[in-house]
What does this fold into?
Amino acid sequence: MSAPNEYTAKVDKTQELSPQQKLEGLEEILRAVKTSLLTSRDPNNGQLHARAMAPASHEKLKFAFIANKDSGKLDELQHDPNVNISYYNHDTTDWASIAGKAKITQDQERIAQLWNPGLKAWFGDISKETGDETKTGDRTDPRVIVIEVVPESIRYWKAKTGKLGQLADVVKGAVTGNVAAPGNLVEITNGEIQLVHGLGSKA
It folds into this structure.
């Protein structure tokens, strides 16, 4: 692993925070930004595809999305389960990047836990036009799947000040030659993630 550059060395606060503090910082970002980008790889040409999706749950750092079985993303995830979930808060410039592996399930109990009536709008009732009375857009529709992503690494950045304060820090760095550090970079390690999952399985 290469040595951190000057910027990373200055803003990285991973070693200064407890696991609980790291999780609280991440939770602040996830609460503020409801929609993420889920990125997967096209099996035909290797290109990365991202789409906006709102997780139905991120409890215990397990990210779950309700999705349509007939969408192209299913083929991508079955070919390569490695994905990235990203968040960006335009108001604060906070961001989070979650790398992990996705799996697909149609477990009806899990779907019932995550379902809300508003999701029907994304599927539509196509039972009459298809002649398949099961495709009503409800949670028992065979098109409904859950994409569950188990993180392997998480990195996030939180601003220390508002946008004006960040701009001032950058300008000061440009004038003085010092590296600007308008925020803190934090990594939640795989070991810490596994600890959270372990606590969740005992709950």
In short: The CA atoms of residues 76 and 195 lie 29 Å apart.
